[in-house]
């Protein structure tokens, strides 16, 4: 069904509604209108890395872990699988008249905010710090969710529009001040790509203000840019309970009816919250018109027609059976994504391990046998979790003895309330002393980093204070290393941690339901690690500007002045890749990539551009293309990477795109061209001079 037909049907349907009926449809829990054949519908559903919060579904790696694959085709496949499961669950539940929250087809994902500061707890939901990478992955994810059928398979949502990335604790009254240049160069590109390229069906506003205007009632964002400039045709939804912040926290309005009127004036069609209960009061006070209410209602009904869940035409996806949910194939895909996303940060030669040469393996740490560290936030419930310990036990069964100690609590100073502090350190030391190799599983989970006010956050309630491990885990790390045994540190987190100790360090993120199987395939050499960091790992928050500062100066790899611990785009492998014969012509960069190492593996070819002339170009360089390739030992292939013309432009201080640069360098290789990446990888990307 094309949009024009859906819009026509919506117009005819809404014309039959009373004012009261139209107003009631603008809330996320929209009531039924039996006389018009309209069933109740709850617009609120989540699908960040799998259908979330509604029972059994495949749990894929957290979004930042998927971003570490640098594989947009893979993300589209993941999103297609997620929307199949969403349809399977919706079809079954609707047949049982279950129209509760988290059970609809309007999926409030992806989160394409820029992860500008590693303290932000919700950064795990994003695709990292780079606007180009975020755009490419976000477009792929939306296309996968929405499908290629006559109707939408599901309706995706680009959130949170815009200039939103913490701090969580003050988001309800915070004013994010941003320059026109940073707005256009960093904070808006992904949203623009999702609107113009992927035709995302909805956009969600943010809690904070942006340059004085609340994001969910911003003339600049919602009207001038989203609708008028970009031509967005879908519907806008508020973040949940964001509209009450207008009068309670931002104080840009005095009453709830005023807040409802402000949001509606600039095109917020759907309220996740309760302020639109005041729509009729705002109408009676003369603050909004019936025409505005009608327009919003028509946009929402258009989406429902596009999904095939209104009217008699239905959808080709109505036939998706419940058995398509939580399948063996989707589990294998989740494991594959986890394998491609884990990033090897350090390796002194210890990895890969040979299980046949080990007598005893020590598995230690609060995340070793944790399901929570597999999930991340906004997660569904899997029927088949495999923790790190379970995966290691299975790999070692019949060959090697496995000893286990929790070692410490995740963040408390003891594991048992009646015990003395550090009650598992001696056990951990004993295990380490008796082991040929130690696999030390440290890090965080969504109880330590996540969303402010989330019921899952029992500690810290959102953002991190620093980049260190919790104190109890620092003690555990030092105690285990003191045993002097070869140690692999496995880090679970959705953000950067400043950890450099150990013989090898593997960043596992929150790797999804089969994270334990993915981990052992990397540890024991069945798969060569191939993930790349979608964020910079800094040494300390003291190296960064204030968290509340939204200027991009000295932030992310494009503007950072210092030397990172582990750079954006970095990741080690068990094999080596050589680049040669780079050429750039007619907007295409071609380069030969050869696997010159000792095993098969994936490489992520990355292209960065440096503008030598424009005073408005990023301080360092910017990612402008990437491609993942799979090469057997000794195999080589010519990789072609299109470079968009926009890469050779820069935004000036007024937020205007300029073409002042004439001399450029394109760098192509397995990492950034920065000095730290060259030291860590032992390879320098090829450089091509380009004049325009």
Tally of extended strands? Answer: 23
Strand content: 15-25%
**Largest beta sheet, briefly?**
6 strands, mixed
Strand line-up of the largest beta sheet: 9-14-13-12-10-11
Work out the helicity level: 25-40%
Structure class: alpha/beta
Architecture of the largest domain in CATH? Alpha-Beta Barrel
Fourth-tier CATH superfamily name of the largest domain: Glycoside hydrolase, family 3, N-terminal domain
Terminal residue distance: 44 Å
Rg computed from alpha carbons, rounded to a whole number of angstroms: 25 Å
The CATH C-level class name of the largest domain? Alpha Beta
Give the tally of structural domains. Answer: 3
Number of helices: 20
Q: What is the fold's blueprint, element by element?
A:
Blueprint: H1 3-14, H2 19-24, E1 29-30, E2 41-42, H3 63-67, H4 72-95, H5 131-146, E3 157-161, E4 175-176, H6 180-187, H7 189-196, E5 202-205, E6 209-210, E7 213-214, H8 219-229, E8 235-237, H9 244-248, H10 256-265, H11 279-284, H12 290-306, H13 328-341, E9 343-347, E10 360-364, H14 372-375, H15 388-396, E11 401-405, H16 425-433, E12 437-443, H17 471-481, E13 487-492, E14 504-507, H18 515-523, H19 556-559, E15 577-585, E16 588-595, E17 601-611, E18 622-631, E19 636-642, E20 650-651, E21 657-658, E22 663-669, H20 675-681, E23 686-691
Parallel strand pairs: 3-5, 4-6, 5-8, 10-11, 10-12, 12-13, 13-14
Antiparallel strand pairs: 1-2, 6-7, 9-14, 15-16, 16-19, 17-18, 17-22, 20-21, 22-23
Helix pairs in contact: 1-12, 4-5, 5-7, 13-18, 15-18, 16-17
């Amino acid at each position: 069904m094309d949009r024009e037909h859906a819009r026509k049907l919506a117009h005819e349907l809404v014309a039959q509604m009373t004012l009261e009926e139209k107003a009631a449809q603008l809330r996320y829990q929209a009531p039924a209108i039996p006389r018009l054949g309209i069933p109740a519908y709850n617009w609120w559903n989540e699908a960040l890395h799998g259908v979330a919060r509604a029972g059994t579904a495949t749990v894929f790696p957290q979004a930042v872990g998927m971003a570490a694959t640098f594989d947009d085709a893979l993300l589209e496949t993941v999103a297609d699988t997620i929307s199949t499961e969403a349809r399977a669950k919706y079809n079954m539940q609707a047949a049982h008249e279950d129209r509760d929250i988290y059970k609809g087809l309007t999926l409030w994902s992806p989160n394409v905010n820029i992860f500008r500061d590693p303290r932000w707890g919700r950064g795990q939901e994003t695709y990292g710090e780079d606007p180009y990478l975020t755009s490419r992955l976000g477009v792929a994810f939306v296309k996968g969710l929405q499908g290629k059928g006559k109707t939408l398979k599901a309706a995706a949502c680009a959130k949170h529009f815009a200039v939103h990335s913490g701090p969580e604790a003050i988001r309800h009254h915070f004013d994010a001040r941003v320059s026109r240049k940073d707005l256009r160069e960093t904070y808006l590109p992904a949203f623009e790509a999702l609107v113009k390229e992927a035709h995302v069906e909805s956009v969600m506003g943010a809690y904070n203000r942006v340059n004085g205007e609340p994001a969910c009632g911003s003339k600049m964002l919602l009207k001038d840019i989203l609708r008028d400039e970009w031509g967005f045709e879908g519907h806008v939804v508020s973040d949940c309970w964001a509209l009450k912040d207008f009068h309670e926290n931002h104080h840009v309005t005095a009453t709830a009816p005023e807040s409802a009127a402000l949001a509606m004036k600039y095109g917020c069609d759907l309220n996740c919250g309760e302020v639109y209960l005041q729509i009729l009061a705002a109408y009676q006070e003369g603050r909004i018109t019936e025409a505005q209410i009608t327009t919003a209602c028509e946009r929402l009904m258009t989406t429902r027609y596009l999904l095939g869940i209104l009217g008699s035409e239905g959808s080709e996806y109505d036939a998706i059976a419940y058995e398509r949910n939580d399948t063996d194939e989707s589990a294998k895909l989740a494991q594959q994504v986890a394998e491609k996303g884990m990033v090897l940060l350090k390796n002194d030669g210890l990895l890969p391990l040979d299980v046949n040469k080990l007598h005893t393996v020590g598995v230690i740490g609060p995340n070793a046998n944790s399901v929570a560290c597999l999930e991340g936030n906004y997660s569904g419930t899997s029927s088949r979790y495999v923790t790190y310990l379970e995966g290691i036990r299975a790999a070692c069964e019949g060959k090697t003895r496995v000893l286990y100690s929790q070692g410490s609590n995740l963040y408390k100073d003891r594991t048992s309330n009646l015990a003395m502090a550090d009650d598992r350190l001696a056990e951990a030391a004993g295990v380490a002393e008796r082991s040929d190799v130690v696999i030390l599983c440290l890090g965080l989970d969504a109880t330590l980093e996540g969303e402010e006010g989330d019921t899952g956050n029992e500690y810290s309630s959102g953002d991190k204070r620093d980049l260190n491990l919790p104190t109890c885990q620092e003690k555990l790390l030092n105690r285990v290393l003191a045993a002097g045994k070869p140690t692999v540190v496995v880090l679970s987190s959705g953000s950067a941690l400043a950890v450099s100790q150990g013989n090898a360090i593997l960043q596992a993120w929150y790797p999804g339901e089969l994270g334990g199987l993915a981990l052992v395939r990397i540890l024991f050499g069945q798969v060569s690690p191939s993930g790349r960091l979608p964020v910079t790992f800094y040494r300390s928050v003291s190296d960064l500007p204030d968290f509340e500062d939204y200027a991009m100066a000295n932030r992310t790899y494009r503007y950072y002045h210092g030397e990172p611990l582990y750079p954006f785009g970095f990741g080690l492998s068990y094999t080596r890749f050589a680049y040669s014969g780079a050429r750039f012509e007619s907007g295409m960069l071609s380069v030969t990539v050869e696997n010159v190492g000792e095993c098969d593996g994936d490489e992520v070819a990355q292209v960065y551009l440096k503008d030598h002339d424009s005073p408005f170009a990023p301080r360092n360089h910017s990612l402008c293309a990437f491609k993942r390739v799979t090469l057997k030992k000794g195999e080589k292939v010519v990789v072609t990477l299109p470079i968009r013309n926009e890469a050779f432009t820069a935004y000036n201080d007024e937020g205007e795109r300029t073409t002042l640069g004439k001399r450029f360098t394109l760098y192509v290789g397995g990492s950034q061209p920065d000095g730290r990446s060259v030291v860590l990888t032992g390879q320098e990307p090829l450089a091509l001079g380009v004049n325009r």
